[in-house]
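User: My collaborator sent over this chain with a note saying "see what the structure looks like." That's all I know about it. Can you take a look?
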Amino acid sequence: MTQTTTDLALDEDGHLLDHTIWSQQIAQILADTIDITLTDEHHAILIVIRNFYAEFNHPPATRPLIKYLQQQLPESEITNQKLQQLFNTGLVARHLNRIAGLPKPPNCL
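Assistant: Without extra context I'll predict from the sequence alone. Here is the result:
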């Protein structure tokens, strides 16, 4: 049986209510809402975002997110434009945190 977003406990913005249940399969379910098929590169980025959350105890906004990704994944040459293309969105921090199973950053729309 295939799981969908209706099977997940989400807040009004589509973020997991319990970030500890996140898995790569759940990430794909969340990514399906913006028509993305996750690759190894996507998963590497999502793991780093989750590491940021574990280290700093809050979801990253766009600038700290990009800076952290550049430090943690220098070989990926992360830029805002690259993240927009990879994740098919202009709302980088919001959607990357959502797909990573994390809450919406406080300053996001």
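A starting point for your reply to your collaborator: The mean pLDDT is 91.
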